[in-house]
Amino acid sequence: MAVPVAFFAAFFAWPVAAIVARGLKVDGKWQFGRIADVATQADIRHVLWFTTWQALASTALTLLVALPGAYVFARLDFPGKQVLRAVVTVPFVLPTVVVGTAFLALVGRGGLLDELWGVRLDTTVWAILLAHVFFNYAVVVRTVGGLWGQLDPRQEEAARMLGASPFRAWRKVTLPALAPAVAAAALMVFLFTFTSFGVVQILGGPTFSTLEVEIYRQTSEIFDLSTAAVLTIVQFIAVGAILAVHAWTVRRRETALRLVDANVTARRPRGAGQWALLAGVLGIVAVLLVLPLAVLVQRSLGASGFGYYRALTHDDGGTFLVPPIHAVGNSLQYALAATVIAVAIGGLAAAALARRDAGRLVRGFDALLMLPLGVSAVTVGFGFLIALDRPPLDLRSSWILVPLAQALVGVPFVVRTMLPVLRAVDARLREAAAVLGASPWRVWREVDLPMVRRALLVAAGFAFAVSLGEFGATVFIARPDNPTLPVAVARLLGRPGDLNYGQAMALSTILMVVCAVALLVLERLRTDRSGEF
Amino acid sequence: MLLSLEGATVRFGGRAVLDAVGLDVAEHEIVCVLGPSGSGKSTLLRAVAGLQPLNGGRVSLDGRDQSGVPAHKRGVGLMFQDHQLFPQRDVGGNVAFGLRMHGAARPQQDERVRELLDLVGLPGAARRAVASLSGGEQQRVALARALAPRPRLLMLDEPLGQLDRSLRERLVVELRELFGQLGTTVLAVTHDQGEAFALADRVVVMRDGRIAQSGTPLEVWQRPADEFVARFLGFDNVVEGMVSGEAADTPWGKLPVPQDAPQGTRTLLVRPAGVRLVPADEGLRCTVAARTFKGTHVAVQVQPEEAPRLEAAVALREAPEVGDAVGVEFDPAEIVMLG
Fold it and tell me: What is the CATH code for B235-338?
């Protein structure tokens, strides 16, 4: 327990506090008046308003599109279901930069729709909303569908025997059981879209800006640290509130439900209704999830075959100090280091949280662990730069800075994946080992480890994928001669010219392939109880 | 004494689950703790195993105080209620677990696993997956696993709880034979009196964290210590009566009692075998309210006009029909004065 706490104190709380202090402290005095000043500025109020309503709209749209998908994945059985489940999850682990790029290629200037019908959406909010649905589809399908598949169908049958119509049985029995999962999924989507950065940065243009994008703009373009600090605090409070509600719904979800093996509840589609639903869901997946990725690949090939890919290996002397292809190696190294850190820290935290005698303080830490998912990554990145540059923690010039920041985002995934599995290990199994003469350490090695090994691998895979795609913090702390893949993509996109655009598409494709491969490996390892993601 | 508990107390919240329990188990003895669920039986085992810290009192093994000795160093075996076999190991891996923990060499482990699987009647099952075992087989593997490291005390928590009746009756005989052969010291807990009486040298009845009675199965069966024990053993003809001389005045009329019976207000038990049905114009007038076929006899519930119901054990061909009017007389040999 002490290690995760120290890690979060040193690499999360301290940098964030440092940057907030830097912004709000003038001549050693706190300037809390700034909060009121900033909050009443018209353009800031506009950003706050936009952030909130686009998050609400994205969440509603995602639920609308993904809930039928959750049903199809939970209750219908069709060939290729496993592969399709992996396919819909790919977007979730894709770096936001790639998502943004893919939608740009689809709906942007010179994009597929532009070429075909002259339709451009990149100047409208629809591009952002669609990208958010693309990104979060899997959150709803996995969280809601995971539970739906495990609900005992005999409960509905019992209601039918008591005289309820099929719809009524669903509404009175299944829906109440699902409600907490729907609420939890909606809150996660709201959290991800409320703090959206990469997608809005690329698709929002000058018109649309979320809090996170505004923090980035204030910090790195206008150098107005005090406004950035105030915005960070605002976002912090909002995220804290969302997480508090989420923790509450999760606890509600743990109420005793009769769960059964998901494999036995799925059936072949029957009747026109179910076939139509299946076709509809497959259509949506094809248009909304597969098409953007396909367009991305197609654009990366351009007119010149693999020309853009070949260009990646050349040092153009302008954008980077090294050929862009080096970003692949950097990214893999950083992500591996970040994975090791995240699994170690997250594993320790999950082990401490899974103890039955965990006190209220420890359980409170559970919610705190989720904070890095929502707190401004930009703030964390910039905080690293100003807080970790003097003894005892002088890491400014160390390569470890980037993995440390990426691990922060990976830890919540590790904890969420490991915790349900660890909690499911029967305490009496450990007692049985102890009575047979196994010391506490031996008990962990002989009983817990074999049972959580798969979950551990899944957790490591997720941590790897999110570390690979981390953008907000990395963009600040990656050194110009050592860019990561997302940073390189963003920089290429920021420069004019077909070659740069094509290279960005090519790099994004590489990133997508790496993430997809990691995910497909995970899907094979997936355990029945691998948490929420 | 191999095991001795003195004033052992465990509290959950404010409630004492074990309330100053004193209990001794001698070497080679088989002691069975009998009690309804929630009486603290399992907690007793967990306290001896070191899985449940005591709030008061002490547990000694071979005269040595065990406070502060962790579970894995106590050298006792515990067979869990639902077996708790390690799902990711095969049968052999489960049985060998304790041996590995004690650092036995590989050939010795294999030898001992074979020996134990033979002993519990599962020869050659070492490579089987535990998920493929039936309930009875799992129970045998759990027993072999607990016996393998040769614990000085073997504890069984509801050892036959989840098995069906015929298997249970067969296994309880096998277990008693096996423990006799090996000379194992056993402390078992169960809620099933038949199991306890068949298995134990000594039965300890628990109620609300305290010991209500301790004695041989015959003693406990013949002379239940109080109304609780009597009712727990399935005797329902329990009544208050005023004893004077050789008779007790009860709602069922005058009951004969032994000569040296203590005088005054007492609780009496009439065994069903001591309730004799006679023609309606003799003895206590009753109506037959219900009859239950018990295999060897029929349990007949009779309702006196102004007194609690009585249960009578009647031979099958003599059993009256529901609604018949009967008379009741009492056999002095089947009347017991309770504590």
Answer: 2.40.50.140
Alpha-carbon gap: B74 to the closest alpha carbon of chain A (Å): 8
Q: Quick check: A495 pLDDT over 60?
A: yes
Close Cβ partners of A141 (under 8 Å, ≥ 6 residues apart): A66, A69, A70, A73, A85, A88
Residue A301 falls inside a structural domain: no
Q: Find the CATH number of the domain harbouring A464.
A: 1.10.3720.10
Q: Is the pLDDT of residue B61 over 50?
A: yes
Closest residue in chain A to residue B146, using alpha carbons only: A436
User: What does the alpha-carbon distance between residue A362 and residue A65 come to, in Å, rounded to a whole number?
Assistant: 37
> Hey, what are A35's tokens?
């909060």
Per-residue pLDDT tens digits for A300-339 = 776 666 666 666 666 555 555 566 677 777 888 888 888 8
Long-range contacts, stretch A117-122, CB < 8 angstroms, 24+ apart? A122/A203, A122/A205
Each residue's pLDDT tens digit, B74-94? 889 999 888 888 888 889 999
Domain that holds residue A456: 2-17+44-296+307-525
Q: Give the closest residue to B171 by CA, choosing from B150, B142, B149.
A: B142
Shortest CA distance from B78: residue in chain A: A435
Mutate to test the interface with B, among A436, A439, A452 (most CBs of B within 10 A): A436
Determine the residue of chain A that is closest to B76 in CA distance: A435
- Confidence band, pLDDT 50/70/90 cuts, at residue A465: confident
Residue A446 touches partner B, C-beta closer than 8 Å? yes
Q: Number of folded domains in chain A?
A: 1
A446 contacts on B by Cβ (under 8 Å):
86, 97
**Contact (Cβ atoms closer than 8 angstroms) between residue B253 and residue B294:** no
Q: Using the beta-carbon criterion (under 8 Å), do B97 and A446 form an inter-chain contact?
A: yes
Nearest residue of chain B to residue A442 (CA atoms): B101
- Residue boundaries of the structural domains of chain B: 3-231, 235-338
Q: How many helices (H) and strands (E) does chain B have?
A: 8, 20
Per the CB < 8 Å rule, is A436 touching B70? no
SS3 of residue B323 by DSSP? coil
Give a yes or no: residue A31 inside a domain. no
Model confidence pLDDT, tens digit, residues B223-274: 899 999 999 998 989 999 898 888 889 998 888 887 777 888 889 999 998 9
Would the CATH topology of B3-231 be identical to that of B235-338? no
Average confidence (pLDDT) over A394-406 = 74
**What span, in angstroms and rounded, lies between the C-alpha atoms of A115 and A196?**
28
> B35 and B205 in contact (C-beta within 8 Å)?
yes
Considering only the beta carbons, identify the residue of B76, B88, B149 that sits closest to A451: B88
- The shortest CB-CB distance from B84 to any of A428, A438, A442 is to A428
A434 close contact with B: CB closer than 8 A? yes
Query: Is A34 a domain residue?
Result: no
- CATH code assigned to B3-231: 3.40.50.300
Q: Is A276 inside a domain boundary?
A: yes
Whether residue A438 and residue B78 make contact (CB cut-off 8 A), yes or no, is: no
Q: Report chain A residues whose CB lies below 8 A from the CB of B74.
A: 435
Report DSSP state, residue B319.
P
